[in-house]
Batch of 3 targets.
Target 1
Amino acid sequence: MKDVLQEIVATKQQELERMRRKKPSLREALLASDTGIIAEFKRRSPSKGWIKEEGRPDIIPLSYQKNGAAALSILTDKQYFGGHDRFIVEARQSGVTLPILYKNFVIDEFQLYEACLCGASAVLLIAACLPKEKLQMLIGKAHELGLEVLLEMHSEKELEYCELQPDVYGINNRNLGSFVTSVDNSFRLAEQLRSACSGADREPVLVSESGISSPDTIRELRQAGFRGFLIGETFMKMPDPGKALADFIAAINS
C-alpha cells in the first residue's frame, strides 16, 4: 500500500512540474511578429452554426503555423463552439510549437489546470463574466502555473480591469448580447485602452478580436496601437484555412 501511495504522489508531482514548465509566450510572439495574427481553430459559432464541422485539429493548426501565424487560438468550449480540450493535445502532437490560447469561458481555477494539462500557453479571461476580485485571483493562479492571460474587454466600463495587468489586453469586436460584430469597437476604444494601460509595469500588448477580414484593417489597427489580431472565421470558412492565412499575410505585406 505504501508503494502505491508513493507512486501516486510521485505521479502528481511530475504532473505539477510538467504544468509549470516554461511555455511558448503569446506576449513575446506578438511583440516579435510582423503581422501579429493569432489564427483561430474554430469549427462552430453560436450565431452561425457549423463553420467547418469536419475541421481537424491535427491538420489546420499545424498548417496555420507553417503559413505564418504568430500564435494560435483553439476553441475548447463544447456547448457553443463544438470544441474540446483534446483539440489542443492533438495540435501539439501534430507538431505545433507556437503559443496556443485556451479559448473557453474560464470561470474556475480547475479550468486553468485543464488548460495546462492539454498544452496551452495562455488562457482567455473575459471581464464581462467575472468580478474583478475573481479575475485577480485567476490571473495570479494562471501565472503560478506558467500560463499567460489574455484579458478580454468589450466596453469603456470594462477598461478599469486593465489595472490587473494581464499579459495581453484584448478588445472583442463582437457584442456578447446581440452577436453584432464591428471592428469599429477596437478603433473606438483604442486611445482609452492605451490610456488605461499607461500605468503598466511593461509595454502593453493590445489585441483586436473578431470581425477582421481585410488586410487593410490590420494596417489601420496597427496604427491605432494594436499588436495582435485574432482571426478565425475569415480563415476557417475557406476550403484551406492555412492557405487562406498565407494569402492574407501576403496581402498585408504587398
Target 2
Amino acid sequence: MRTSSTDSTDERFMRETFRLAKKGVGWTNPNPMVGAVIVKNRKIVGKGYHRKLGLPHAEVEALSDAGTAARGAVLYTNLEPCSHFGRTPPCANAIIQAGIRRVVCATRDPNAFARGGVEKLRQAGIKVSTGILEKEARDLNEAFFTFHEKQRPFVALKFAASLDGKLATRRGDSKWITNERARAHARRLRGAYQAVLIGIETVIADDPHLGVRTRGLRDPLRIVLDSDLRISLSARVLRDSHVVIATTKNASARKRKQLTHRGIRVLTFSGGRISPEALFAALRKMNVISVLVEGGGAVLGSIIDADSADRIYVFYAPILIGGKRAVVIGGRGADRISNALRVAQVSVHHFGDNILVTGSTRS
C-alpha cells in the first residue's frame, strides 16, 4: 500500500514531537513525556515539550512559541491533549482558544482522569486525527501506559554479569565486572526511571550510591528492600531523604523511628517477607510509574517468579568467574523451558568488549 503525501507529512512532524518529548526524560514523572509542534504551510511555526512535572504541558509551550501564527495551523502531539484541570489548565481549552484548525495525536491518553481531549476538540469543530505512529508513541511512554492500563509500575531488571552468569566472585568481589563505558551507560539508565530498587544484601556488600551522576539527568527515588532493617544509618543510599525503605513488622521499631526522623519514608508490610506484588501495589499508591531493579540475585529472582518484569538490561563482560555462589537470578526458577521467561524485541549494544542485551518480556 502506498503512503499518501498527507500520511508522510503527518509522520514526519510526529517524529519531531517524539524528539522533543525525549528531552523531558526523567523529569516529567509521573506524567508522560510529550512533545508538540505547530505547523503552517508545511513549516514549523511553534514547538514545545513538557519540561518538568508542574510546568506547562507541551501543547501550551508550542502555542506560546507560535503566538498568533497558531491560528489556522495544525498541531501535532504524541499524546492526546488533556481535558482536565490538574497542576495546569486543560490543553484542549488552550488549543481551542488559539484557533488551531486540526490536531494530530499519535495515541489516546490511557489515564481516564485526563482522557477526553479528542472529544472536546471535535465538539469545538476542530478536525482530529489519531493513531499516527501509535506503536512508537506507546513505546516512548511504555511506563506511563503500563501504569494506567495494568494498574502497577513498569518494572525493568538490570544487572551486570560474567559470561557464566555470575554477579561476583566466591568472596563477594564485584568491582568491577564491566568496564567504565558500560557502567556509565548503566548510571544514565537510572535517569530514565522514577525509582531504582535494590535489596539490603547489595547495600551491605557494595554500599552503592545509586545516583545518575550525569549532567541533565535526575536522580531516581532510591528504594531498599530490608525486611529486618539491617541498613546502616551511614549507608550512601541514605545520604538524603529521597529514599524509601520497605520492611516488615518484624523490624526494630527503634530503627524505624530513627529513619522516619530523618525524613525517610518507611513502608511496613505484614509477614516476614515482602512480596513484589505488595511492594508494587504500595508504590502505585505513591504514583511511582517506573522502577529499575538492580538486584541482587534474590530480588531479581523474586520479581521474575512473580511475573512482574517488563524489560531487561543485561550487561556482559568477557570473563568467567566459576563457582556456585553469586548467581544472577535466584528464586524458584522455571520448571520447564517452555515456562521460562521469554525476551522479545532483543537489541545488542557494544561498549568496547562489553555488551548490553536489552529486550521486552511482554509481547
Target 3
Amino acid sequence: MARKFLYMVTTLIMLAVAAAFVYRIWGQQLMTAAMVPSVTYAEPKPLGSGAYAKQSMWYARPDISRDNPALWTPKGVAANHDGHAAIFFIHPTSYRERSQWNAPLNDEESAYYAKLFIKGQASAFNGAGEVWAPRYRQATFGAFLTIKNDAQNAIDAAYRDVASAFAYFLSQNPNRPIILAAHSQGSLHLMRLMKEEVAGTPLAHRIVAAYIIGWPVSLQSDLPALGLPACIKKDQANCILGWQSFAEPADTSIVRSVYDTSLGLTGQPRKGTRMLCTNPLTGAPDSAAAARTNLGTLSLRDAMNETALVPGAIPARCDRQGFLLIGPPPELGPFVLPGNNYHVYDYGLFWANIRADANERLKIFLKH
C-alpha cells in the first residue's frame, strides 16, 4: 500500500502540474478545453432516504474493519483508535473525467484515489476517535476551472450528498464530541456545511475543532458565517484551523487571483482580506516554528517499501497574506504545483503534529 500511495501522490501531482503549466502558458481557454466537461450538466438522481445507512456508502466508519483506509498508521505509530470523538472527514477531489460533471458512485478509479487520500489524511485523526468518511458524487476537477452554471450545479449536487451523509453521521453520534476535517474540495463543502448545519445551532457546542485544510478561508468574509472562531492557541477547543502550504520562494498568484474575484460566505468580497493561517506546528495563527518542532512528516522509505514519519524535517510560518510557508522546497517527491505550491502535501507535511493537535484539543474539550 505504501508504494501505491507514492504512485497516487506522484500521479496526481503530475496531473496538477501539467494542468497548471498549460494554464500559465496557453491560458484559461485551453485549460477549459482540456479539463472542463463539454457535456450538458445532468442532475444526479436523488440517493433516496436512508442511503447513508448502507455501509457501502462509506469509505470509513466504525463497522468497517476490512479495507478501511482511515485505520492506517505509519510505521512506529500505535494504532490507538479508542478516542472519544466522532470524526467526519470529507475527502478531496479524486475524479478528473470530462464525460460528466459529477463522479458516479461506482467509478473505481476515483474511489481508489479517494481511499488513498483518506489513508494519508484522515488517518491523522484516528487516535482521537472513530473516523467517518462518506462516498459522495464529487464535482469533477474541471468544475473548478470554469464559471459555467453547470460547474456550480455540480458542486451543489456534491454538497447535497455530503449534507445527507452528515445527517446520518449525526443520527449515529447524538452525543459524542465531533471533529470536522476535510481537504480541498472537501473543505469547500465543509465550509458550507458549517454555515448551514452548525452555525447558530446547539451542534456548534459539540465541535472539538474543524480542520478546513487546503482551501482559502477569509477571516473577514468567511469566518463569521462558520459559527466558530479561529483557533488562537494550542490549548483551545471549539475552534477552526486552516492553512495552505507553499515552499519558498512562493508564487501564490494563481490562488490569490481566484480568491480576489470571489465572494465569501457572508456575501462580502474576499479581495483585500486576510486568509486564515493556523501554523500546524504551533497550533496558533500567524506564527512561526522551526523544523525541530515538527513531530513527523509522511515520507516513503524506498528501501523498506513502507511509509514512515520523518521528524524535524519541515518548518512553518504564516506570511502576511495568510499562506503557510515551509522554507526551501523539501524533498518529498519530484513534483509540486507551480509556484512551489505543496497543496497535495498539506496533511502529510505535518501528519504527526495534526494527530497530536487533535488529541490535545479533544482533551481540552472534555475538561469543559
